């Protein structure tokens, strides 16, 4: 009788239901936890993603289960609705807008073209993904990894190809963390030492009126041209207006601290929780990771080539290294430009100049997402 | 979707990003003329330049 009871307990436990796939996913989750804690690879998002992945691969918990009959769904099922409905990425953009100083971009609007050039990876990865047999919707979602913007990638993927969400989110955030390793070799290969040592003129002062008008102008123009981009650009610019208006300090502080932190937790855990063994352990996950790297490389190259072109057109007034900051990973890509510039000339300070293309990249990748959504949504 | 179609779609997407950001560039230049310069002129006048 005692043995029967033990057998029943064993059979009703998660251990009996554990598959080899769950085992592999638990291992992957632990590896991501290690990368987030020990190597500090985007820990704010990678840690909740990894833990969500761990939770969903423990069988019988039902934490991601859909409601059925009179039974309620699992906790993460309801929290995931925020991803599914595109709420979390937009709220994260609200926080990013409140944190961001668009001054360098307003002072040098030509940087917008660098932000546009650095979307080359989206186009390149899209074509390669279609050639590999992905549907246009899936290819567009894979391509957006090249925008180097996590919330935009999650927003577009949740709308076009939700089945690829975990692989794309993990690829996007992992490569963003790896930018200091991916970009420098390309920067050195595509620019001469003379170009890298170019010192740029100090940026002009931006008036308060310009700062206040900027979010309104961007919102009106982008949303009129591409209505589907309203949730991302609208929230980004609302956050920025909170910051620049000077009369909504409390809202700005909430958006850039408490709100963004809460939403990051929900977004990370629920995206991770979509990575169950069945959907994640496929060949296409490896293809997505490879295509994500290709997208990042092409985006960096696109930004650098446009930077070189602008360097020529302005007769050496623009340092082409700031072009690579057009991928929107803020502020890491700008820091990489600064570091590489200082390697060529220790007295060269490119950080503020690189923030312009960096901000342009955020707008550019959101615009690209809006275009892809209009084409394939 | 065939590869030529994908190439066309990619080219369209990439060029549309340029078009939208070019419009934004034009607007920002306009706004800097309308809002940026007078302020700096006033400041320069105050400083007696």
What do these coordinates show?
The complex is a heterodimer of chains A (377) and B (49). With 377 residues, chain A is mostly helical. Helix content of chain A is 73%, strand content 0%. Chain A has one domain. By secondary structure, chain B is mainly alpha-helical. Chain B has a domain of 29 residues. At the A-B interface, helix 8, helix 9, helix 10, helix 15 and helix 21 of A face helix 1 of B.
Characteristics of this structure?
heterodimer; A: 377 residues; mainly alpha; B: 49 residues; 1 helix; rod-shaped
Structural class of chain B, by secondary structure, is: mainly alpha
Major sheet details of chain B: none
Largest sheet of chain A: none
| Rg estimate of chain A, integer Å | 22 Å
Termini distance of chain B? 63 Å
Note the quaternary state here: heterodimer
Low-pLDDT residue spans of chain B: none
Provide the fold topology.
The complex is a heterodimer of chains A (377) and B (49).
Chain A: H1 2-12, H2 14-17, H3 20-37, H4 43-56, H5 75-84, H6 87-99, H7 103-107, H8 111-117, H9 120-131, H10 136-143, H11 150-160, H12 165-177, H13 179-190, H14 193-196, H15 208-225, H16 230-245, H17 249-273, H18 277-280, H19 283-313, H20 332-344, H21 351-376
Helix pairs in contact in A: 3-4, 4-17, 5-17, 6-11, 6-16, 6-17, 8-19, 8-21, 9-10, 9-19, 10-11, 11-12, 11-21, 12-19, 13-19, 13-20, 15-16, 16-17, 20-21
Chain B: H1 3-46
């Amino acid at each position: 009788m005692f043995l029967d009871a033990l057998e029943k307990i064993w059979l009703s436990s998660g251990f009996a239901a554990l598959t080899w796939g769950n085992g592999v996913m638990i291992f992957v989750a632990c590896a991501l936890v290690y990368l987030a804690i020990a190597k500090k690879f985007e820990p704010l998002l990678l840690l909740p993603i990894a833990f969500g992945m761990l939770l969903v691969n423990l069988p019988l918990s039902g934490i991601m289960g859909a409601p059925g009959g009179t039974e309620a769904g699992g906790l993460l099922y309801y929290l995931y609705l925020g991803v599914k409905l595109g709420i979390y990425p937009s709220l994260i953009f609200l926080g990013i807008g409140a944190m961001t100083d668009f001054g360098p971009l307003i002072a040098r609007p030509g940087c917008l073209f660098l932000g546009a050039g650095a979307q080359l990876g989206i186009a390149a990865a899209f074509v390669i993904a279609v050639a590999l047999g992905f549907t246009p919707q899936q290819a567009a979602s894979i391509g957006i990894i090249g925008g180097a913007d996590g919330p935009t990638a999650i927003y577009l993927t949740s709308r076009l190809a939700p089945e690829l969400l975990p692989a794309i989110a993990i690829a996007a955030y992992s490569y963003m963390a790896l930018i200091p390793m991916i970009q420098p070799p390309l920067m050195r290969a595509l620019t001469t030492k003379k170009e890298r040592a170019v010192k740029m003129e100090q940026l002009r002062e931006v008036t308060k009126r310009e700062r206040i008008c900027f979010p309104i102008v961007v919102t009106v123009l982008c949303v009129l041209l591409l209505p589907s981009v309203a949730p991302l650009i609208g929230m980004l610019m609302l956050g920025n207006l909170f910051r620049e208006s000077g009369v909504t300090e409390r809202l700005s502080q909430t958006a850039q601290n408490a709100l963004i932190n809460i939403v990051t937790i929900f977004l990370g855990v629920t995206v991770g929780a979509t990575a169950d063994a069945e959907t994640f352990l496929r060949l296409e996950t490896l293809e997505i990771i490879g295509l994500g790297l290709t997208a990042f490389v092409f985006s960096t190259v696109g930004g650098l080539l446009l930077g070189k072109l602008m360097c020529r057109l302005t007769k050496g007034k623009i340092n082409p290294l700031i072009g690579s900051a057009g991928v929107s990973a803020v502020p890491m890509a700008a820091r990489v430009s600064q570091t590489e510039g200082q390697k060529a000339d220790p007295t060269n300070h490119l950080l503020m100049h690189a923030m312009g293309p960096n901000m342009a990249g955020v707008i550019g990748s959101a615009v690209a997402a809006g275009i892809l959504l209009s084409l394939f949504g | 979707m065939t590869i030529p179609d994908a190439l066309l779609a990619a080219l369209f997407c990439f060029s549309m990003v340029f078009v939208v950001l070019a419009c934004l560039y034009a607007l920002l230049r306009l706004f800097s003329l309308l809002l940026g310069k007078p302020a700096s002129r006033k400041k320069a006048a105050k400083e007696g330049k």
